[in-house]
Amino acid sequence: MPMLVTDLFNQNQLSPHLSKQALFDLGVARQQAVPSRELAAYVPVDRNPLDLIAATESQMLPDLLALRHQRMGVSPFTFFRGTAELMEHDLAEQSHSGIQVIISGDAHVNNYGFYASPERKLLFGLNDFDEARIGNWEDDLKRLLVSTYLAGQSNGFSERDLLPILTNVTRTYRHGVKYANALTLPERFYFSYEIHDMMATIDRISDDQPHKISTILEKILKKSPQKNSEQVIAKLTTADEEGRRYFIEQAPRAKRVPQAIQDQLIRGYHRYLKNTREDVRIYLTNFTVDDVIRYAVGVGSFGTHCYLMLLSGNDGSHLVLQIKEALPLRASLTSLSSDRDLRLAQERSAGRRIVTAQKTLQSASDPFLGASHFGHRSYYFRQFRDMKESIDVTKLDLESFGIYTATCAFLLAIAHFQSPTAPIIAGYLHHQKPVDDTLADWAVQYAGQVNRDYQIFINY
């Protein structure tokens, strides 16, 4: 019987109850069943990208779609970022290792960034989990590889420049798998990539040669602590004559919502409070809700129901929470379109899926992260822009770009190893150096498909 979409995050799949060595041996056996050359063999796809995009956008806000298309149309890379459903659909047609872990589902190079730990340390890692699910480990790596190629093309790098970088991304992922597999369970669980550690790693990788990435990291280290709710307040709000603050409307991106929607958001906030950590719930009793506004973000998420909530503390301080819609996994939207009960079941669980994945794959998470649902839609709450920063890959020179993408690959391996089944990956990749080149070739071929889809999109 085929698995229902509501089972795609069934964590019982990740409870093998075997020793690490037994799991490793399973990976070696899996390599015999699905050799690396088969895993990296490109299978051409046959579908209309516009149909899949339309299925996703049927769940989005119509008045934002024109601006969403404008953002997606900037380049093949931005189109790739905004259409995770296409690759999710196409990966189903490719060969699979069958080795299941919790994956990001959208591990492209712009979905890594800096964020604050609860102790206010600046960490680096995956930072987008809307497409997170239990899936084949190679799906994340393939998306990282294709995004590396497309982002590199946007930077003006040639295929000759990019092929060694692609090869190194997979090589670094393999080395990261070997490194993570050698860690004890506590060492894996507490692993964190603090910015100073990252800078030290980059210094080792770059042999003390100066790169733009080092300068960028220094700027991030100085700037990120200033990114907090008070900065958001200064930028996105104004005050009335009585001193009460409210969000500034800048339609269509920032738009006021009807009172009925505000009431739904308030009820969703109180449901979130009941389910969040007790210390966070107690802390938030110091705050009252002043205002909410619809506020669109990102590329792939642009067009979803997304809001900002302004809270004021009893001491005059402020907190801004983002309330972001948790859509069902994109590839499932078409199959669910005729089954309302299944759609509602998945929509209600989508926020919990995303929150669970983020807390698992990140070395530390926002303490305000939590799920809720209202109005037949699922949402997750998090603090908005709290010390969050990213590296603009378009400003990196070729060598810095290679260092950055390799760092992403290493952290992807560490993230995958939070799943109990991950030692199977180590067995599968043991002595598999040829996969570095073959997956690079797969990525170049799939990037060609993205470019063809992009042309169809911009000419529609």
From TrEMBL:
Note the InterPro entries from the entry. DUF2252
Q: What is this protein called?
A: DUF2252 domain-containing protein
Name the species this protein comes from: Limosilactobacillus fermentum (strain NBRC 3956 / LMG 18251) (Lactobacillus fermentum)
